[in-house]
């Protein structure tokens, strides 16, 4: 895989600084230098200290990544929302983890995507997860298909150019929910649990914005946008204001309303394509189990 740019500056610049501006990380640059890649200027192989002049043509040849040998294959089909040579967007079902863990090495989205890559015969089979979802959260999830795309998408995440919106079903003190509100409560680890988080003055800043989409007799359907990315942020915040997510037994959600997992779905994902810079927007309908609960309360 190769990428080419024209150098348009009037002053000279070393190749390594130019490539850094283009999103080439130190790790990727090391792979290019030491694992069979190339850096060319005007079709001549050069090193990273070469000084560029206006109108030079800079090309990088990125070596194939092969595969993660430690990531097992899971042949379960994936629900592909969008794919090109650089990115893959999938619809993750609830009950499936994003990545393997020590005691759960298979059955995750990473395992399924690897099996898909292998079946398609893709040159790059390393799994690059850009946006994760909790095991019991459903919805849109983004993978980069090679390391350069991953680095550029990570840069967008750091610059807060991504938009991720969720839908949740909540119950409790619904009268306290505004039509459009903000929750600004710091979140810390709950040391009584390996997994749980809690609101604490000792925690890190966390902001959640929400809009009420539907108010029903015992539940509300809420649209949510995160402005920070703390672990379990949506679940912790809505539990803290007395409106825990349905099915979320960890944070006090009701388990008697027809859903046994946290009723949380990533339905809206927007980001700029890492190479064309086109704004990509994807939306996914509410998950079937959540939709069934809404319909039951609407009847």
UniProtKB/TrEMBL annotation:
<feature type="active site">
    <location>
        <position position="134"/>
    </location>
</feature>
<dbReference type="InterPro" id="IPR006225">
    <property type="entry name" value="PsdUridine_synth_RluC/D"/>
</dbReference>
<keyword id="KW-0413">Isomerase</keyword>
<dbReference type="GO" id="GO:0000455">
    <property type="term" value="P:enzyme-directed rRNA pseudouridine synthesis"/>
</dbReference>
<dbReference type="GO" id="GO:0003723">
    <property type="term" value="F:RNA binding"/>
</dbReference>
<keyword id="KW-0694">RNA-binding</keyword>
<comment type="similarity">
    <text>Belongs to the pseudouridine synthase RluA family.</text>
</comment>
<dbReference type="InterPro" id="IPR020103">
    <property type="entry name" value="PsdUridine_synth_cat_dom_sf"/>
</dbReference>
<dbReference type="InterPro" id="IPR006224">
    <property type="entry name" value="PsdUridine_synth_RluA-like_CS"/>
</dbReference>
<dbReference type="InterPro" id="IPR050188">
    <property type="entry name" value="RluA_PseudoU_synthase"/>
</dbReference>
<dbReference type="GO" id="GO:0140098">
    <property type="term" value="F:catalytic activity, acting on RNA"/>
</dbReference>
<dbReference type="InterPro" id="IPR006145">
    <property type="entry name" value="PsdUridine_synth_RsuA/RluA"/>
</dbReference>
<comment type="function">
    <text>Responsible for synthesis of pseudouridine from uracil.</text>
</comment>
<feature type="domain" description="Pseudouridine synthase RsuA/RluA-like">
    <location>
        <begin position="86"/>
        <end position="240"/>
    </location>
</feature>
<protein>
    <recommendedName>
        <fullName>Pseudouridine synthase</fullName>
        <ecNumber>5.4.99.-</ecNumber>
    </recommendedName>
</protein>
<dbReference type="Pfam" id="PF00849">
    <property type="entry name" value="PseudoU_synth_2"/>
</dbReference>
<dbReference type="GO" id="GO:0009982">
    <property type="term" value="F:pseudouridine synthase activity"/>
</dbReference>
């Amino acid at each position: 895989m190769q990428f080419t740019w024209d150098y348009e500056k009037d002053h000279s610049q070393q190749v390594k600084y130019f490539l850094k501006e283009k999103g080439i990380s130190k790790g990727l640059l090391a792979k290019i230098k030491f694992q069979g890649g190339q850096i060319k200027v005007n079709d001549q192989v050069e090193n990273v200290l070469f000084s560029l002049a206006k109108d030079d043509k800079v090309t990088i040849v990125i070596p194939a990544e092969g595969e993660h040998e430690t990531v097992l294959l899971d042949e379960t089909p994936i629900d592909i929302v969008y794919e090109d040579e650089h990115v893959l967007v999938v619809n993750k079902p609830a009950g499936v983890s994003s990545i393997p863990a020590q005691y759960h090495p298979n059955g995750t989205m990473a395992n399924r995507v690897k099996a898909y890559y292998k079946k398609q015969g893709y040159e790059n089979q390393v799994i690059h997860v850009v946006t994760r979802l909790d095991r019991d959260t459903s919805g849109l999830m983004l993978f980069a298909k090679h390391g350069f795309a991953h680095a550029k998408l990570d840069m967008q995440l750091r610059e807060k150019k991504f938009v991720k919106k969720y839908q949740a079903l909540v119950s409790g003190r619904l009268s306290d929910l505004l039509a459009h509100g903000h929750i600004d409560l710091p979140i810390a680890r709950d040391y009584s649990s390996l997994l749980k988080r809690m609101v604490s003055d000792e925690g890190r800043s966390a902001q959640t914005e929400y809009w009420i989409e539907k108010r029903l007799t015992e539940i509300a359907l809420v649209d949510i946008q995160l402005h920070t990315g703390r672990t379990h942020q949506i679940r912790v915040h809505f539990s803290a204001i007395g409106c825990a997510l349905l099915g979320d037994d960890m944070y006090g959600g009701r388990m008697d309303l027809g859903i046994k997992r946290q009723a949380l779905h990533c339905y809206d994902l927007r980001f700029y394509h890492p190479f064309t810079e086109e704004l990509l927007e994807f939306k996914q309908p509410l998950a079937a189990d959540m939709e069934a609960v809404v319909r039951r309360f609407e009847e």
